Amino acid sequence: MADQHVPTEKDFVPPAEAALVPPKAPTARQLAATGDASRGGIGAIPGRSGTERVVTVVVYGLLFALALLYFVPFVWMISTSLKTLPETAYFSLLPKDPSLHAYREALTTFHFARYAANSVGLAAAVSVVNVFLCSLGGYAFARLRFPGREVLFFAVLATLMVPDQLRLVPIFVKFSEWHLLGHYHGYVLVKLASAAQLFLMRQYFLTIPRDLEEAAKLDGAGYFKTFWKVMLPLAGPAIAAIAILEFEGTWNDFFWPLIIFQTSPDHFTLPVGIFSFVSEYQTQWPQLMASAVIAIAPIAVLYVFFQRYFVAGVASSGVKG
Amino acid sequence: MAATTAPNETRTRAFGSERFKEALVGYSFIAVPMLVYAVLFFYPIVYAIYISRYDWGVLGKIGDKGAGNYRELLHDERLRIAIKNGLKFTLAFTIFSMALGLFVAVVVNSAVRARGFFRSAYYFPSIASSAAITAIALFILSADGLFNKITGLNHAWFGESGTALWAIVGLNSWTTSGTVMLFYLAYLQSIPTDVYEAAAIDGAGAWRTFWKVTFPLLKPGHFFVSTLLVIGGLKMFDQAFIASGGTGGPNNATLVPVLYLYRVAFADANFGYAAAVGIALMLLMVTLTLIQRLTFGRGGAN
Predict the structure, then answer these.
(1) CB-CB: which of B127, B178, B237 is closest to A321?
(2) Å from B159 to nearest chain A CA?
(3) Domain coordinates of chain A in residue numbers?
(4) Residue B61 dihedral angles phi and psi, to the nearest 5°
(5) What does the alpha-carbon distance between residue A9 and residue A4 come to, in Å, rounded to a whole number?
(6) CA-nearest residue of chain B to A62?
(7) B130-140 vs B164-189: helix crossing angle, rounded to 10
(8) What is the CATH number of domain B77-300?
(9) CATH class for the region spanning A107-317
């Protein structure tokens, strides 16, 4: 599972191509390796064994104290979601009489079933179109020769520098003119082809040996067939990374769904639904925490199984706002 | 282009049409993404500049303003507040997430066993929904919430103008520290172990080793992480928007630049001015990044 070696972004970023990544970024391989216990840190300093033991105790004490800091909010969220409103006034970690009442209410009365369905649909759609378009584009930039290729590729990278807040007003005005506001396809359009993922695919295709393609070509396969039958199956790990990163990014996205669906509540995704719930019924804590669980749990499950791909995303996505 | 004149091209050269076909296929493979980038990235920049020269309402153009929107920027009190809040937030957020992230990275790196587990656990808040996390924070930091209960303090952290921005600083430093930790772990592991061996032979304790050896050697890491955090901090929106119910309150305490931009566009329906604010913010970000690169970055390359 988590420890299998799945090639991730860093495995396929040849050093010369890493121009996108900010100055002195750790490579994907470095990031991927940070979980391995194979290299010693301070703990591996040869020294007096007594001191070492003290250090070990201190280190693990700190690790568990920190784990409290990082887990308590989530534990508190789950615990509260199983309580009734009056019970939230008591600070018991375990609900006296755990019930799924808050979930039922959140899903039905407060429309979170609808929001969850919207989130799933949009995240899946964005994920699929990105896998398709970014692998086609990445393959073309990696392997096909056409005039203007370098200039166009530079343009792709340049889009990474355009901040969303600059695009907000013009895109809103144009989308309203084009009747794209309040429509699912309007949102998918904004997320249609991610430059970061296209770059990731290109880097991956660059690492696949050419012989395989040449062999396919000798067999008379056309360009698309070579791409589809030979190259795409070889790019499995990169495709998985894109699919997961785009799914997560869309699932958690707050900004664009807020802009595009602001006047059509039946299109809200989970994050926008949470905002609208907060503004209207702020102190219905159990229901609010239940909706937070609904928004967090699916990503937590994905994270447990596909941890390495999430780590691979750090370098390309940077810090969330 | 360089690729088309590579020496191994001689074979395809014999088939001129083959080369033409390859180019056609190439263009068709990239057609949709390039169209998207043209329409949704490059065109909007031009269009934003266009809009910014008009008085522009919900229904479109109202009147020509020339540079009027840009002149207004200079005398806009709320924009001044938003930028001040943005800078205050960014500075505090950068310092706290770096300190917490580095601390966690050093502790995790010192663990010989279960390092992978703790690393994954601490990174998790970074990938959880920002809206859901803000909801949890609203609950825990409410007047009768868990935080007050544990600390014995008594504040409605998001509800008071003196604490609201700091509550978001704390919240975001906490979530982002996981990402910072991942980067620092990578940098920590690129430090050769013999440096530590030398320090141990010199009799340096763990504390001294950290400040005299580890910390200075992490300089490229400090630079890289702080660059990311400053840009991320200036773009902060979700948490301030959700915690303040979209208002930037109480009393403009959480009015950060992007939230102000949103309000000018959608609460005031003043798109022309909002476009000008967007352009000004982008210039501010570019300037800060350049300053950072020139001052901090120079020595950063080891």
Answers:
(1) B237
(2) 12
(3) 107-317
(4) -60, 135
(5) 15
(6) B107
(7) 130
(8) 1.10.3720.10
(9) mainly alpha
